[in-house]
Fold this protein.
Amino acid sequence: MDYKAAFALGIPIAVGLAGLGSAIGLGIAVGAALDGIARQPEALGKIRQNMFLGAALIEAITFIVMGFVFIILQRV
Amino acid sequence: MNLESPNIVSLLAKQFSGTPLEHFLHFWENVIFSLITMGIVGIFVYLASRKINLIPGRLQNSVELLVEGMNHLFGEILGAHGKKFIPLAGTLFIYILFMNLLGLIPLLKSPTASLATTSALAVCAFGCFLYTAIKEEGLMGFLYHMAGKPKDALLMIIFMWVFIFPVEFLTVFIRPITLSLRLRGNISSEDSILSLLTHFGFGGALVMPFMTLLALLAAVIQAFVFSFLTTIYLATIFNEEE
C-alpha cells in the first residue's frame, strides 16, 4: 500500500476519534453539572463557572490532536 | 503551519521579497504583533487613568470593572497568603485576551496562534510557580510535598515514595506543556477555520458570522482558563490541610 493511501485511511479516523472522545467527555461533564444545578438551584453561578472551566480542559485534548493532524498533513 | 490569511507583516515581507528585510520581518512576526497588543492595552489603560474622578466616567468605569472582577475572582482562590500573585494572573488574563482577539481583525494575526508565544507564556507562569514553591518550602520540602508528605512508619514512607511520587512529579511537570498546547491549539484552529471559509465563496460568507462568534467565545474562555489554572497551581503551594 502506498504511504499516502495509508495516511488517507488513517487521518480521518484520527479526527473522528478526537471528536468522539471530546463529545462523550463533554456530555458527561455537562450532565453532571445539570444534576448539581437541579439538586441545588442557588449554586447556579458557581456550578456554571466550574462547568465552563472543565469544558475548556476537555476541549484541550481535541485541539492538541488537531494540531498533530495538521502537522502530519503538512508532511504528506 | 496551517492555512493562514495574509496579514500586514507578511504582505510587507512579500513586497520586499529577496532582501534581508523579508527574513527579519518573517522571523519577528509574532513579536511585532505582541508589541502591537502591548501598545493597545497600554494606551487604553493610560487614557482611562489620566484623571481619576470619584464618580467614574465610562472608560474609567470599564477598567475598574475589569480590575474589580479579577481581584474578586483570583483573590478568592489564592487567599490572604497569595495576594501578591493577583497582578500576575490579571496581567496574563488581559494580555492573552487581547492577543487572542487580535486575530479576528482582518489584517492582523494572533501571536498566540503559534507555539513560540504560548510556550513563552507557559514558561513564565510555570517558572513563577517553581520559584515560589522552592522559596516557600525549600527544595527537599517541595519534593516531600509532591510525595504526599510521608510520615512515621517505614512502610508508608517507602510506599509513598515509590508509588505516589512519580505520578505527582509527572503531573506537575507536564503542566507547562498542556498550558501552551491548549492555548495554541484553540486559537490556531479557530483562525485556520476562519481563513478556510474564505475559500468557499458565498456559502463561506454565510457561515462566517457564526464562526466568528465561536472564535470570540473561545478567545475569552481560553484566556480565562490559562490565568485561572495558573492561580490554582499557585494556590496548591499555600493551602495545606491541617
